[in-house]
Structures are given as structure tokens and as C-alpha cells.
What we know:
Number of helices: 22
Radius of gyration: 38 Å
Mean pLDDT: 80
Distance between the termini: 98 Å
Strand content: 15-25%
Shape: elongated
Helix content: 40-55%
Number of strands: 19
Amino acid sequence: MDDRARITDQAMESLPIPDDDWTRAALTRGMPVAVAQKLPHLPESPGVYLWKDAEGTVLYVGKAKKLRARVRSYWAQDHLTSPKTRGLLRKVRDLDTIVVPSEAHALILEATLIKENRPRFNIALRDDKSYPYIKVTVQEPFPRVMVTRRLADDGARYFGPYTDVGAMRRALTVVKRIFTVRSCHYALPKEAPERPCLDYFIQRCKAPCVGQQDAADYRTMIDEVVWFLEGRTSDVMRHVRERMLEASARLDFERAGELRDALRHLEKMEEPTVVLEVEGGDRDVVGYARDGEDACVVVLRIRGGKLLARDHRLLEHAEGEDDGTVLGASLAQWYRTVEARAADLLVPFDFEDREMLEASLEGTHVRVPQRGPRRALVELADKNARHLLEEFKLAALEADERAADPVYELQRELGLPRLPRSLVCFDISHAQGTDVVASAVWFENARPRRAEYRKFKIQLFEGNDDFKSMHEVVTRYFRRRLDEDRPLPDLAVIDGGKGQLGAARAALESLGVTQVGLISLAKKDEEIFVPGRSESVRLPRRSPALRMLQQARDEAHRFAVTFQRQKRAARTITSELLKIPGVGPAKRRALLHVFGSVQGVRDATLEQVAAVPGFGLASARKLHEALGVPLSPTTPIATPESDTPTDAPAAPTSPLPPVE
């Protein structure tokens, strides 16, 4: 860091603003004058840049392989499409830069400055408080074991940080029970009490302060403490067993008994720690889960093939950032400061800063396993990350229940910025270009929520046009939810290809809806299209995420087809009943409500038709005649009074049965 250089405000006050097309365009887009003055003089070398507001507060810290090109890119057209970047640039008034020797130095300095300034636009550790460490003062002649929340370059060994304070306390309890580590604060051997403390009399300490234990024996015990805290319990057991046998050979049975009891306790501790054996060895395994602007990163510590601990961090301010950037920022800010790192760090996916991170870790190789036992470890870590993120969401009342695994898989496979806990699927249905309808079905955590199902009649145009229909339906659906202030889904799924996807995207953009993810699922090859990607995504046929999408698509299709058939049946009965004199709209609706179809009216008896509101026996007979229903021979036909001769006797009639 000795050769880093700072571009100061005083040196830039007298610089002219470059007069070129790009600078004029950037000034038009809001580039501050102070930045325009500094930009031509920035070096094309690695460094860190700090965006500041009018008060000089640091808004954002970033690293760059080439400072000038990186700063200049902020005013490129494609960069301004990010809402987060637009919000940042509206507040930026000045720029500060620091030149460093390499990209790895830039990564380290960026993480340090983020921790120091906590800029509001950087990805930040949500719970970046001071986690406790176990400190072993190995630089002292008679080391101590203590808890601290501050790391210092003082030669001591630090173990942690412990996100689970209970686990740290249990580790300390074991250390105090098995090892006789002194608890006093004397700077031995310079300072010493006149007599031993109570720990000596209850056999918790061997009183090195008054010469009852020499430095060599005490140091051997401290080595075993360090091995234990590193997870090398088997090495500790081997040494304790050897010392027990030596004490027994010397006939020091009291000491041998103490070591025997310690060995038994270590054996009991060893049993539950054998969680998994994966090719042996030491490695740290990273798991990742994300839901919108919140993310969780987990590190499983595996030593000697045994899972010893799980550490995690929750992150915020991740909106607008891809998963690789979020994971890289987390590991740079957190994992890089961990002291007891393994030689192998397994991560779930590759990211842009992986090589820089590896260069800054000094001896730790960052690997992305694709298959086999190591990939299984990464999947286990991912599952832990999902579990912890769900716990946080539930505790913060941001979710009603845990999201299913297919929901996380879909987010990961498609690179969705938000976890699709809720999705709505749209489908268009018609009968040879007529009776065009649409449906919208809602799924919550991979399960249908039928109270949120909606159906639509296409109203804005006649004929069959899937693209226009999809645009109309998506517009009407989301406009109503916005007007009624109802929650929007995390993901919208369109049944169709790129054309339907483009129509839906245009509809969302016209409403200003940017927080809802959008994809389409083409049925022919089960291709998934994502806006902004030229190539489709194909998930394995057995993928739970694909099955969830297929279930939503099939449910939307069923719901749309059912509605389309109902609409067609209503149109059919209406068109036939329109031909019958004396049957108006109210009577048609009543017949459709009772009998459902024209055939239902034909099959009904006169009495059943007469029981419909607005009908009587006479009108029921006329309806049956118009529909060509043969009259029953026992049912007399009333002759109109005007057609009967005045001198003719009335035809005998039988009494009508009562109307039910």
C-alpha cells in the first residue's frame, strides 16, 4: 500500500473541463463538474474509487482494474438502466481515488474502506457487529485463553469469529474442564502472586504462577488446546493417551487417572462430531441463498473430514447486483479476515473476483466443484444458507412460511434477483380464433392459491392475436393490483415463446413495474426464455423447478380452457335463443342459469321450463315448439281463442298438473 496515491480536491480545482462529445453527453446526464475535471487525469491502473455527496460523505466504495475506464463507465447508457446506480449518481458530487499495486490489493482495500465508512450503496453485512473470538496468547511464556471481540496483530492465535456464541461458550467449558489453563492476568513470570489462587485447590490450575508447573509442561498443554480449537481432536486424544501411559509407567497413578478422565471426555465429544466423512482433509465450504435485496452466505468448516462448525453472514443492499458480485463482496469483507482458513475453499459458482480473492487469501485455493462428493458438500451448504435466510424472513415477518426447495432452484438456475416465493402464470385460450379468453393463476411457495385465480375476456380488439391478448391481460391484471394496492408477485410466467414474453414485458414497462421478474415457458421443448438473454434456458427434465413451472403452466391452461368452454356454451345457447320470438335477454339469462345449454332446455319438461322466472306453461310450449321438441301425446295443445269458431263447442280439456 506504500505506493498508493490520492487525487486531492485542491489539485483538481484549477483543471479545465475537457471539451469533447463524450464529456458533454456525460455532463448532460448529470456528471458533476468535479468528476469531469478529475476524469482525464485518472490512471489506467488498479485502484479504489470513492463516490461522495455534497457533504463529503462516502456513498459507495468500488475497486477497479483500470480506474479511468471504470469511473467513466458509470455514465454509459447501459449502466444507467440500474435503479440503484441512478439513485447513487443523483447524489454524487465528488470523487476520491486510491491507486494500489495490484487488483488483489484493490480488493483488500475496498473491503477495509467499506467496513470503515459503511457506505449506504455498498453491499453490507447486515449483522456486521463484533463477533467474539477465542484468543490464545501464545506469544506469552505462560499463555492464557480468553474471549475477545477485537482482532489485533499481537502474535496471539485467534479462533472464530463465532456467530453462535453458545458454541463458543461450550468450547471454553471443555477447555477449562480438560486443560488446566490459568485464569489469572499476571504477566508471568515477571509478575506473580505470593500464593496460588482457588483454581489450584480445586484442581483447575497447576499454579505455574508459584512454580508448581514449569513452562515446558505448560506449553505442551497449550499446544493441545490449540489443536482442540482447530478441530484436531484426534491428535489431542493421541497425546493425552501417550501422557497417560507415561504417568502410569512412572507409577503416578493420580496423574494417570486425571488424564484417563480427560480422555474419556474427549472420546464422548468425538462421537457426535463425526457428521460426515468426505475424502478426509480440511476445507471450508460456502453456501449461498438470496431473496431480493437480502442474501445469506454460510461457511461450513470441515477439518479431517468432520463437520465442526457453521458460520454465516446476512447481507443487505444487494438490489441490482448479480449473485457473483454479492458472493464476492461477502467473502472479501468477511472470510478474508478469518484466521484459521482451510487450504481449499469450495464455492457454489464462479464469480468475477474469484482470482483476486484467491490472491488475497494467501495459500487458500478457491474451487468451484461441479460434481461428486465436493459438490454434495456445496449443496449441503446451500441448504443451510436457505434455512438461515428463511429463519430471518420469518422472524422479520417478511414471509408467512418457508419457501420450498424448487423455488430456490428456480432462482439459482435463472439468475432471478428475487426469490420467486409467489408467481403468477398467464395463458391465452380460444376456439379456432373465437371466444378468446385468458387466465392468471397464482402459486405461493410452489403451491396453488386458488383464491387469487383470475379470468379475463379479451375486450380491446376482435379476432385472435396472442401477442395483443397477452399485452392486454398483463396490463389489466397488474394495473388493477396497483390500483387496489395489492401485493405484486415475485415472478410472472408467460405460457409461450419470445413473442408473448416481449408483449408481457412491454405491458409491465408501460405500468412502471420493475420489481417483478418475468420469464416465459415454451411448451414444445420446455424452453425458458428470460428477458435480456438471447439463448433459452433448459432445465433437466427431472428438475423440481421445471416441474413447478410446468404445474403452474398446466393449471393456467386448465383454468383458461374451462372458462373458454363456458363462454362458448353461453354464446351457443344465446345465439339459438335469439331466434325465438318473445325470449329476451332476461329470459335467456334465466334459461342459461337453470339449464346450462340449449340441449338442457330441450330435455326439460314443460313444467320445468314453466318454473323458470318469466315463463308460464303457454310460453314453455312456444319455446319447445320453436326448438322442435315433440310434444307429449298426453299434453294438450291450447288452441288460440281467435282461431276457434264462435259456434263450435269447446274442446274438452283435462286438468293440468300442478307446477312444482
